[in-house]
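Why do we bother with a discrete structure alphabet at all? Because it lets us treat a fold like text: something you can write down, compare, and reason about line by line. To make this less abstract, here is a complete entry for ABC transporter domain-containing protein. Read it the way you would read a sentence in a foreign language you are learning: slowly, and without expecting to understand everything at once.
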Amino acid sequence: MISASGFLANGSDTFHATTSRTVEAALGHELPQLEIRFHDLAISAELVLASKQGKHDLPTLWNHAKTSFVGLCNRKHSVTKDIVHPVTGVLKPSTMTLVQPGTITYNGLTKAELQHRLPQFIAYTGQRDHHYHTLSVHEMLAFAHQCHGGAVVPRHVLDALVHGTSDENADAVRVLEALYAVYPDVVVQQLGLTNCKDTVVGNAMLRGVSGGERKRVTVGEMEFGMKPVSLLMKSAPGSTRLRRLTSSKPSKARLAI
């Protein structure tokens, strides 16, 4: 059985490249990739302009009531601010970039056509962290792993590993079974959470890991399920953490099983 340290002995890039080659040999073809295209993408927001009326009045009860009443009666002035002008582009597999919501296709299919299956292909990490705060970092990631099937390799994956030689097929099954068994430990090491893996995640009321470590736990939860696309929204303040989180993303894009 290969350990997490064994998988990552030569770094994340080597781990993903070696594992994908092993699996592709048994599949008989390259692993499926996901190409995202966006067309005429434009985003705008309507902003309400603040009024200075009554701003310098004394803070009496009467002035507060008057200002509130006038504010309800007056028309609110607003302006439309363009955030993203119409743009068109393609997100190729094994690349990193920034994309905003809009008219997007996935391997030529629209969001409506993939509405119920889209979560199988794309992981989204928002700005807010939602955890069971009394669990440790490792327990939280192990729980996320269990929610995606745990250490059991999906049957459809095993059934597809029959197009290589007998040794190639057996090697691919062995590697995947070992990877699924220790994947939470692999994620812990990739995200630099080894030193705090036994510390409770915590929240505003319970002291736990730091804010940056908690954010990495959130990103780690999204790693399970072998999704080919990861979307991050301001996930890592600070250049050091950002490099740690994104360093393995391009190579990981090949290992989506």
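What the structure line is telling us, in plain words: The radius of gyration is 24 Å. Residues 4-32+112-252 form one domain.
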